[in-house]
Specification:
The chain is mainly alpha-helical. Helices cover about 45% and strands about 5% of the residues. The chain has helices at about 30-35, 50-60, 65-70, 75-80, 85-90, 90-110, 120-135, 165-175, and strands at about 5-10, 15. The chain has a two-stranded antiparallel ribbon.
Length: about 180
């Protein structure tokens, strides 16, 4: 194997090509490991809160047939990080890379990307409202994306799990959705 400058070594030992991702280049455990170690809000929350836990909570808000899609809705972040929304709008190449990675992940696990169900976006926004209220410092500036929403719209409890526990919970929920968990 010839390792290129755009190859990322994963926890499993596999190499993931950021510009040409292939389904065999990563495992579900690689995704869970990455997401469980990435803090939401680029680490600017009151305490550590992982993208993996966020994804599990989003999945708890959708019907059963959409749970896997909700679990994987931020899966590309396992490989490219959680870029803040204010910065992401300026990164056109990032958006292309993210799209390509998401397409490969969703195809590998039998989901459709981009996801068409408004329930996925709604669960993400509901969790954002709850996370903002519970995990971010209070401030007066409104977030237009959350207009009309309150933290009361969200019933799952944010636990701020350790990366190890968030990874286990993410993989457990994936298994409940019918995915086989690799042993890497």
């Amino acid at each position: 194997m010839n390792i290129l400058h755009n190859d990322l070594q994963l926890r499993s030992g596999k190499y993931f090509n950021l510009l040409s991702p292939q389904p065999g280049d990563f495992t579900l455990t690689d995704i869970a490991h990455g997401l469980s170690n990435i803090c939401r809000f680029v680490g600017q929350s009151k305490t550590f809160y992982s993208v993996a836990e966020h994804s599990v909570l989003c999945a708890s808000l959708v019907p059963d047939e959409l749970k896997l899609t909700a679990l994987l809705h931020d899966a590309s972040e396992a490989f490219i990080g959680d870029v803040s929304a204010p910065l992401k709008q300026y990164l056109s190449e990032y958006k292309k890379i993210e799209y390509n990675i998401m397409t490969v992940i969703f195809k590998k696990y039998g989901c459709v990307y981009p996801f068409a169900s408004p329930a996925i976006k709604q669960s993400d926004l509901t969790m954002l409202a709850a996370e903002r209220a519970e995990l971010l410092t209070e401030q007066d500036m409104p977030w237009p994306i959350l207009e009309g929403m309150t933290a009361a719209d969200c019933f799952p409890r944010i636990l701020c799990l350790s990366p190890v526990k968030a990874k286990r919970m993410f993989l457990y929920e994936c298994e409940k959705c019918g995915l086989e968990i690799d042993k890497s």
